Amino acid sequence: MSTEAGTQTGQSASSGGRQEPQAVIRESAKYRRRAQEAERRAEALEAELEAMRREREEEKSRLGADLAAARGEADSLRGRVEAIEHDRRLEREFLAAGCADVEAAVALARHRLAGQEPPEDLKTFARALLAEKPHLRGEPAVAAGAAARGLGPCTTGVKPAGASGQRRVLDRLADQARQTGNAKDVMTYMRARRGGI
Questions:
Q1: Is 0.85 topped by the overall pTM?
Q2: Is residue 186 part of a domain?
Q3: Does residue 195 form part of some domain?
């Protein structure tokens, strides 16, 4: 009986000894699989993180370009607004100085001031420009002086309102010239208009 017990003990010890390395191998394989899976997940997360960094850098550079473009557009708009405000101030000064053709005066002032800083005193600038270009005032004395020098009355632009009969004659001659298209009728109308019938 003692030999049987010893044999069973020996078998259980030997069988226990055989099972132990297999359990260690199984555990080792299980840990290896877990480690490999963890490494794969870590690599995937690192790749995802790198992709997110690249996206963030691209977004940052795109936003920087958009911001630069918006700043450029804002500067351009600011410059245009300042130019419009300057033109409005010039218009007010030309009107106050008695200018008859404000648009022409502002265009001339813009040409004169191109590439320069606007003058501090726009009032003085407007008056000096009108003194230099009296035809912008539209003063009757200037027209009368030109007529006295033999230049004749102005044939273009707005004419002073004459007698209603004169206007009707001019209208009739203009209609006749328009309808016939005859050079003689056109010349008659032009002479009547120039003469200020």
A1: no
A2: yes
A3: yes
Closest CA to 137 of 93, 112, 105: 105
DSSP, residue by residue, 124-165: HHHHHHHHH-GGGTT-HHHHHHHHHTT-----SSPPPP--HH
Residue 131 has a CB neighbour count (10 Å cut-off) of: 11
139-148: pLDDT as tens digits: 544 444 444 4
Q: In this structure, is residue 65 part of a structural domain? A: no
Q: What would the pLDDT profile of 101-147 be if each residue is shown by its tens digit?
A: 888 888 888 888 887 877 778 888 888 888 888 887 865 444 444 44
Provide the number of structural domains found in the chain.
1
- Please give the DSSP secondary-structure letter assigned to residue 115: T
- Residue 29 to residue 50: CA distance in whole angstroms: 31
The Cα–Cα gap between 22 and 168 comes to 126
pLDDT in tens, 18-42: 558 888 888 888 889 999 999 999 9
